[in-house]
Design brief:
The chain has 2 domains: about 5-40, no CATH class; about 75-200, Rossmann fold. Helix content is about 30%, strand content about 10%. The protein has 7 helices and 6 strands; from the N terminus they run E-E-H-E-H-E-H-E-H-E-H-H-H. Strand 4 (about 100), helix 3 and strand 5 form a beta-alpha-beta unit. The longest helix has 14 residues, at about 175-185. The chain is elongated.
Length: about 210
């Protein structure tokens, strides 16, 4: 259990609970529980398992990609940062590893995505690529800490080249993406000396692009 709601399985803050239920004379909340556990407990008088569940109950707290992991391989979580149009998604998919990309349509919101990243950070056998914009050194450090990244790289290109690349895509969000490129470079710093992405061979991953 964590004080940060995003790191809890239900994505909610911990709740105070009474070991001796208030319905039975308890007056002091003396422990913390997951919100789902606390609410399932009710007034503390239930002695049998209910046949139904509250409306908010679910076993699917967040949808995560099917993991590609081998307990015999070392943990590998690559944080790949860069502006829109830099080719992060293409590079990540070529790795053959599990890809966490906020732009994938199955992510319903930032909170859901962040919760999944926190779970990834606690997976001792994870082998994945996490895509984030990470324009600043502080943003990269925060993302790396969340997923406990083993490697952090920057994948970028000249802003003019990126603009032409985005324009050629012909997508409906072209103007917004072009604006995002400008914002990324306005905010960008390299105070952490983050290295350029060297390619998957240098990371020790056999790229599917070579298959």
């Amino acid at each position: 259990m964590y004080r940060d709601p995003a790191r809890n399985p239900d994505g909610m803050p911990l709740e105070a609970d009474h070991t001796q239920a208030r319905s039975q004379g308890g007056r002091r909340a003396d422990r913390l529980l997951l919100a789902t556990c606390n609410r399932s407990r009710g007034d503390g008088t239930r002695t049998v398992t209910p046949t139904g569940r509250p409306d908010w109950w679910t076993r699917d707290w967040y949808a995560i990609p099917e993991p590609i992991a081998d307990p015999g391989l070392p943990r590998l979580v690559v944080l790949l940062c860069g502006p829109p149009g830099a080719g992060k998604t293409t590079a990540a998919q070529a790795s053959g590893l599990t890809v966490y990309d906020r732009d994938d349509p199955h992510w319903t919101g930032e909170r859901q995505f962040t919760t999944a990243l926190a779970a990834l950070g606690h997976d001792p056998h994870a082998r994945a690529v996490v895509i984030r914009s990470g324009a600043t050194s502080s943003a990269r450090a925060k993302a790396a800490q969340l997923v406990l990244a083993t490697h952090v790289y920057l994948l970028t290109e000249d802003a003019t080249v990126l603009g032409h690349r985005v324009a050629r895509r012909g997508r409906a969000d072209k103007q917004a993406t072009l604006a995002a490129i400008g914002t990324w470079f306005d905010q960008h710093d390299r105070d952490d000396d983050v290295p350029d992405f060297p390619g998957w061979d240098a990371v020790g991953v056999h790229s599917t692009a070579h298959a």
